[in-house]
Design a protein that fits this description.
single chain; 63 residues; 2 helices; 89% helix
C-alpha cells in the first residue's frame, strides 16, 4: 500500500468516526471538527513538551 493510499484510508476512517460521533453532518462540518481535534492534539503536545523542558531547566539549574 502506498503512502497516499494510507492517507486516504485514514481520512475515510476519520470521516466514518465523525459520522458515528456527531451524526450526519456535511463534509465541511466534519473536516472542521477534525481540524479542531488536530489543533487540540498539537496544543496538548506542545504544552507537554514545554512542561518537560521547564522541568529539565529547573533540574539543570539545581546542579
Amino acid at each position: 500500500m502506498k503512502v497516499r493510499e494510507v492517507e486516504v484510508e485514514n481520512l475515510n476512517n476519520s470521516f466514518q468516526t465523525c459520522v458515528f460521533l456527531f451524526g450526519h453532518r456535511l463534509k465541511n462540518e466534519i473536516a472542521h471538527l477534525l481540524a479542531i481535534e488536530v489543533e487540540r492534539d498539537r496544543l496538548r503536545y506542545s504544552f507537554a513538551r514545554n512542561e518537560m523542558s521547564s522541568l529539565e531547566n529547573q533540574r539543570n539549574q539545581r546542579t
